[in-house]
Structure formats: structure tokens, C-alpha cells
Design brief:
By secondary structure, this protein is an alpha+beta fold. It has 15 helices and 11 strands.
Amino acid sequence: MITFERFTLENGLKVIFHRDETTPMAVVNILYNVGARDEDPNRTGFAHLFEHLMFGGSKNIESFDNPLQLAGGECNAFTNNDITNYYDILPVQNLETAFWLESDRMLELAFTDKSLEVQRNVVIEEFKQRYLNQPYGDVWLLFRPLIYKQHPYQWATIGKEISHIEQAVMEDVKSFFFKYYGPDNAILVVGGNTTLDHVKELAQKWFGSIPARGDNKRNLAPEPPQHEERELRVEREVPSSAIYMAFRMGHRMTKEHYLGDLASDILSRGKSSRLYHALIAEKKLFSSISAYISGGWEDGLFLVSGNMNEGISFETAKEEIWNQLMMMADEKIEANELIKVKNKFKTSKVFSEQSLMNRVMNIAFFELLGKAELVNDELNKYDAITADEIQHFCKSVFRKENLSTLMITAKK
């Protein structure tokens, strides 16, 4: 059971405190309710650009990293299509340093031409290195527009194309910041061996005077149901041909999320899983294969991807994967298979919660999903799932008219 207490500042900033008396360290995590889905379709990549700009200096502090490192701390951040998350880890006696740094960059960034130019070039270089010049790097640049036709999930966090970041001007950057990075669009979670009163004092001192930025409710049109099978085949300089299959499914807060997660574990978690045993060990069709879910907050995906062995055609690869999926839909799942994947999930969850940072981050994550208390319900939700429910999920999701397939042929 993860315990915590919460309060809200007058400017709308939600603050949650998780006490841990066993560690000398503290974690300060700020989750901003902004991701790539909030971007203008003609100015994509901004949420990710801000992940970098937020470390480029703020209104009163030239460097974010240096003071934190002098206080014995470290920091990092990540962005995806749904959220942007920043975290700092430092000795608890230096906790106020993180409040000082995080509040100043929430107040206002430096917004200098030099900072924008530096971070813009960093992001452009990342786009080239990780997405254009790396084997399989452009998979999601190709796959997302095949799956999503209207929803902003159709572009990756890095953005649709480099030109959107190349053409980013200061006016656009400021507008994006003041719309999304205010206290009323953020959740601050603090963990460590301190007290609620101390966290209240620090939160009011450093964040209390930052003005709310106003109503920021998103109103995105849902992706319409898919009614036809979709395919895209491309040729690339890659070590081996690869196939990616995506089925649309429910979003993060639906029961389908949990059903899909366990179904994917039965298919591909470990060397005793179905896909590994049948398609790698026995038939030797793939060098690697995996099944997983995207966990999208608005529209999730069940995915299967595999790297094919030399001489295996896409037709064979797809048919063999399909046969395995149909076995999940048509045949009752053995009780020992379900117990095994549930036990593996419990073990990994309990192990991950040994980390203060993971606990703090999960509290923020579930608070944004609805309420932080949900963080303690996960195990019960997985435990309650039956084999019949997974079979029903597979029947309803694994349909050809609900399938998008990307095939990447290795150039000879």
C-alpha cells in the first residue's frame, strides 16, 4: 500500500506528499498534462522540444543542472503522446533546491534566441540520429499515420517532420509554454523522509505566487472505428525484414488495458511464452518476436512485432502470427498460463515499488488519470481477470478489419 497526503494551492497546483522514512534521498516529480496529442498538426514536436527547453535556463536561474548537481542531485524528464514528466532526485536536506529550480522554470523560461537555437538543433539532430538514420528508426513515423487517420496519435512524439521544429519561432514557443506549463496544468509529487507541513511550507513559498494560466481542457475528436484491414510495405537498410501488426483496443482506463496486458504476456513474456516457443524455438521463423500494448490514454493498441529470419516471406510470417492469435481467441487459456503471467506481473510491480522514484512517479501518473488512490488498485484488477475474459477480449480485438500491418523489407 502506497500512502500519501494531498493539498491544492490557490493557483490550482495539486501537491501530493509520500513519506518514506527509509531513505536519505528525496524525489520531486512534476507531471504536466501535455503531450504530443496537444500539438498543432502543423507544428508537431513541440512537447518534446520543451522537454529540452526546460533545461535551458529559466527567468532567474541560468542553469538548471548546475545548482542541482551542487546539491548532490540529478534530474531527467520524458515526454510521450499523453504527458510530460520531470523529476529530480537529491538528498532530503537539500529538498528546497528542487522547489527553487522547478518553480522558476514553471514561472517562466529564459526564452532567449540562443537557448531556442541550441535546443532546436539538439532536437533536429535527435530526429536524424534516432528516427531517420537508425535501422527501424522510422517505424512509428510510418506506422502511426497508417493506424490513426484523425486523432493526433497519428504522429510520434518527435513530430511529423523536421521542418516543424526547424521553423519553430519564439512566438510559437512562448504561446505553447504559457498554455500548458502552468500550475493549474501540473501535479507536484514529493517523496522522502520529511513532513507534510514542510512540503506545504515549501510549496507555498516557491509555487504559491505563480499565476494560474487558465482553462486548458482538451477537446480532441476521437479516432473513428476501423472497418478495413490496412497494410503498408516499405524497403529499408535494415539487418532483417520485420513485421509490425497493430489492433485497436480500449484506452488506459478501460478493462481492455488489463486484459490486453495479460494476453500479451501469455503470448510473448519469456522463453516459455507461446510466440517464442512456436515461432522461434520450434518453427524458426523469427529471430525475435514480442507482443505488447501501447497504453494510450485515449485509444490503445495491441501490437505484435517480429524480426524475420532469412528466407521467410511476409505472408508466412503474418499467417503464423495470426494462427497464434486465433488460438488465443478460440481455445481456452490454461489456468497455469494465467497464473504464471499474473505472478510475473506481481513480482515486477512489487520490485519496481521498492524504488522511491517509481512510487512518486506512479502517484502523479494515477492522479492525472483520475485519482492517485488508483495506484493501489492495480494488483486487484489484474488478480480479478479470468481466462474467459481474456479469450473474449481476443475474440473482439483480433479481427482482420481491426488490423494494420507494416512490413519492412531489408534491402539486398
